[in-house]
Amino acid sequence: xxxxxxxxxxxxxxxxxxxxxxxxxxxxxxxxxxxxxxxxxxxxxxxxxxxxxxxxxxxxxxxxxxxxxxxxxxxxxxxxxxxxxxxxxxxxxxxxxxxxxxxxxxxxxxxxxxxxxxxxxxxxxxxxxxxxxxxxxxxxxxxxxxxxxxxxxxxxxxxxxxxxxxxxxxxxxxxxxxxxxxxxxxxxxxxxxxxxxxxxxxxxxxxxxxxxxxxxxxxxxxxxxxxxxxxxxxxxxxxxxxxxxxxxxxxxxxxxxxxxxxxxxxxxxxxxxxxxxxxxxxxxxxxxxxxxxxxxxxxxxxxxxxxxxxxxxxxxxxxxxxxxxxxxxxxxxxxxxxxxxxx
Length: 343
Known about the structure:
Layout: H1 5-37, H2 41-53, H3 55-66, H4 70-94, H5 100-103, H6 107-128, H7 139-160, H8 188-219, H9 224-236, H10 238-250, H11 253-277, H12 289-311, H13 322-341
Helix pairs in contact: 1-2, 1-8, 1-10, 2-11, 3-4, 3-8, 3-11, 4-9, 4-10, 4-11, 4-12, 4-13, 6-7, 6-11, 6-12, 7-11, 8-9, 10-11, 12-13
């Protein structure tokens, strides 16, 4: 798609701008859909908004996998999981009233975070076991997809019949749906159409970004791992940053957190789908140690987030929770170490 380095850099920048602009609109529409449908921010954010903000990652990862670039594909996915969690830490910095994870307490977010850990353990299991595939696909990929469906069923049941609720405090911001239609607002069908249009634009931008990234890899000395884990992972994840900050600004705190944890659970599904698209065997055994390291980093960061969601610290270092501080620190350390470990 891009024949020169200059054109690929320009294309990369344009795609990143489109993704960022669409992110703000998606947050507004998702917040209203959560209210109008009565589904709530946790389900809408963890499934629908997460699905849309994952489209650039989905398009980028599958494009790389189909092109026979497994390290670029998994580097993008695993790097996205890590940077998404770092974005949640940035969101905590932006919300000054209390620790974001304390204010946005939700049992659905706990389930989503736990689901992310379970799903990310499947690729790690495939990587550390002997090479095995059926028609070029590792059996773990099929199990992962089934686990994702089961996990989202649990989230839906929790929304309908919660077995426990978080303790309310002065800093807690509950997800209370506003079912009344605002004056001059479009219909529910119109909201879904607008959501779909923004989703399509976001997916197209993600596809263009990965095509630009492939040219950058070919024309520079940068490795697939570095480009995927740092550059494409960051820019294809900009919808998560934009939507998280926008949701915090709109007061939709549960939506902000559920968008991140839901996106990371869906990113694990993207890895499984990439295994189906990659035609040279199991994609899990086509990557090197750097990808295993980032998978462990992603698991560690998610586990710390889960601890933060359970502990619900009101204020911590710099008026953010200990989990946000540690997540940001781990991400910076892992990023700094990536050039040292190579591919």
